[in-house]
């Protein structure tokens, strides 16, 4: 099968190029304004931008075990809608993905149900070091150094020292200091105001755990990725750390702050908690100056019924995978960043951090994971049209400028937006993500 995407503004690592992109099978075969060849399909992309498909390196898709909240079929359709062609999923499913066998099971499940490309982290526990040492077909190791949804906490210093000393895969961690969180829970016991969440999971909790993790990684010379950075102070720590340390930020930490609790209540209850307007600004600046390289969503769906429980019982987490690209393109429309920076933060950088083969760039020989953008299209996020199984978004009612209008996964078009309707082709599934390290 040959497809020609003509007259696109192609976002390459060398800048914007007016060109046609030829797809042959699952690969990009040529990038040239004057391609003359017989094709099966031709798409006129005049006026639109072609980006490398997004790689979201932090999602919770709840499959298996919590499929009343989300499952791979819904979540991967949400990905296709949002221009996310590959995802890396966290291990706090049920059972927790903490062995090679359970990683293999998830890969097998995804091969039958995921419309986009898939990869799964192996989760650390206090006693699965041997599994972590030999794991393959996985981007890396996830450690919950602070507890969040699920029971994957690893807080013991000796255990952490051994994981950093004896494994080789890149480690990523949820950094909120457990002792600080527990002490704050005592102090604020009995409070039912949702804003208490940001007082319990406060700046100090995030900074202590990030500092501890960077210290472990630096002493053991181990590649380490700080997940969902939420404070200006962590940015300071990361900016002076060695280049073994990479970091990411999520849209909710860029765009929500404690002033939004009055309006959105528990919908924005997240771990790490949302912080202040000052932190929003520092996180955006860290993207612009390169201190933070990656944007991921931490897509963490819970049903609206679960979220409506009173604080503190309401669970932490919000869905975002189908809107993250539009949220960032909206910043392009406001001249806060460029479309090339968005491609770098959401595709090229995660491919580099996680050693992903042949993705993250529009280059000849790379996988044809592509997303076509209409930078002028204005649409409102609407709960009724969300593809995620939990069917809500904390950005419901927000109008954004700049949306994905077509998505290709391994050369196959899986989504097109036509006359305001999203149309999906679910006749074939995505592929297992391959890594340079295994
Ligand atoms: O708020 C969160 N919810 N943060 C996480 O890190 C996990 C997530 C979940 O799985 O619900």
List keywords for this structure.
about 450 residues, alpha/beta, Urease, subunit C, domain 1, 2 domains, 14 helices, about 25% strand, binds (4S)-2,6-dioxohexahydropyrimidine-4-carboxylic acid
Concise account of the structure shown:
This protein is an alpha/beta fold and 438 residues long. It has helices spanning 72-81, 100-113, 129-134, 157-166, 178-187, 196-200, 203-219, 232-239, 251-255, 261-264, 277-288, 304-307, 324-333, 339-353; strands spanning 2-12, 15-24, 27-32, 41-44, 49-52, 54-59, 84-89, 117-120, 122-123, 141-144, 171-174, 224-226, 245-249, 294-295, 370-380, 399-409, 412-418, 421-424.
Task: Provide a descriptive summary of the structure in words.
The chain is an alpha/beta fold. The protein folds into 2 domains: about 1-50 and about 365-425, Urease, subunit C, domain 1; about 55-355, TIM Barrel, CATH 3.20.20. It is about 30% helix and about 25% strand. It has 14 helices and 18 strands. It has helices at about 70-80, 100-115, 130-135, 155-165, 180-185, 195-200, 205-220, 230-240, 250-255, 260-265, 275-290, 305, 325-335, 340-355; strands at about 1-10, 15-25, 25-30, 40-45, 50, 55-60, 85-90, 115-120, 120-125, 140-145, 170-175, 225, 245-250, 295, 370-380, 400-410, 410-420, 420-425. It starts with a strand and ends in a 14-residue tail after the last strand. The mean pLDDT is about 95. (4S)-2,6-dioxohexahydropyrimidine-4-carboxylic acid binds near residues 60, 148, 174 and 271.
């Amino acid at each position: 099968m040959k497809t020609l995407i003509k007259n696109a503004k192609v976002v390459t690592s060398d800048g914007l190029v007016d060109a046609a992109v030829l797809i042959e099978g699952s690969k990009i075969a040529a990038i040239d304004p004057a391609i003359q060849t017989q094709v099966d399909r031709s798409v006129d992309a005049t006026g639109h931008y072609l980006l490398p498909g997004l790689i979201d390196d932090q999602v919770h898709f709840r499959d298996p075990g919590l499929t009343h909240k989300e499952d791979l079929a819904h979540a991967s359709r949400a990905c296709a809608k949002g221009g996310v062609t590959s995802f890396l999923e966290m291990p706090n499913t049920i059972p927790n993905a903490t062995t090679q066998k359970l990683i293999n099971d998830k890969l097998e499940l995804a091969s039958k149900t995921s419309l986009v490309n898939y990869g799964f982290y192996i989760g650390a526990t206090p006693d699965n070091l041997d599994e972590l040492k030999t794991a393959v077909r996985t981007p890396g190791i996830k450690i919950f150094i602070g507890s969040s949804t699920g029971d994957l906490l690893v807080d013991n210093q000796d255990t952490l020292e051994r994981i950093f000393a004896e494994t080789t895969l890149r480690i990523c961690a949820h950094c909120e200091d457990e002792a600080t969180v527990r002490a704050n829970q005592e102090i604020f016991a009995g409070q039912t105001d949702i804003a208490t969440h940001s007082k319990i999971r406060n700046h100090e909790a995030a900074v202590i755990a990030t500092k501890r993790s960077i210290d472990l990684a630096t002493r053991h010379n181990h590649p380490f990725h700080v997940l969902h950075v939420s404070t200006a102070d962590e940015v300071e720590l990361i900016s002076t750390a060695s280049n073994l340390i990479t970091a990411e930020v999520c849209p909710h930490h860029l765009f929500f702050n404690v002033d939004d609790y009055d309006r959105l209540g528990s919908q924005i209850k997240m771990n790490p908690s949302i912080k202040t307007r000052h932190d929003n600004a520092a996180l955006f600046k860290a993207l612009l100056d390169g201190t933070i390289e990656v944007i991921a969503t931490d897509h963490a769906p819970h049903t609206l019924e679960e979220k409506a429980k009173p604080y503190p019982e309401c669970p932490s987490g919000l869905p975002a995978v189908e809107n993250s690209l539009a949220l960032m393109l909206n910043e392009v429309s406001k001249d806060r960043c460029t479309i090339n920076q968005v491609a770098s933060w959401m595709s090229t950088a995660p491919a580099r951090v996680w050693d992903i083969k042949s993705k993250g760039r529009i280059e000849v020989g790379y996988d044809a994971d592509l997303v076509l953008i209409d930078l002028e299209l204005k649409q409102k996020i609407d709960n009724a049209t969300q593809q995620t199984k939990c069917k809500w978004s904390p950005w419901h009612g927000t109008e954004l400028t700049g949306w994905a209008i077509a998505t290709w996964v391994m050369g196959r078009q899986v989504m097109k937006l036509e006359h305001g309707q999203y149309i999906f082709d679910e006749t074939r599934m995505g592929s297992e993500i391959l890594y340079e390290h295994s």
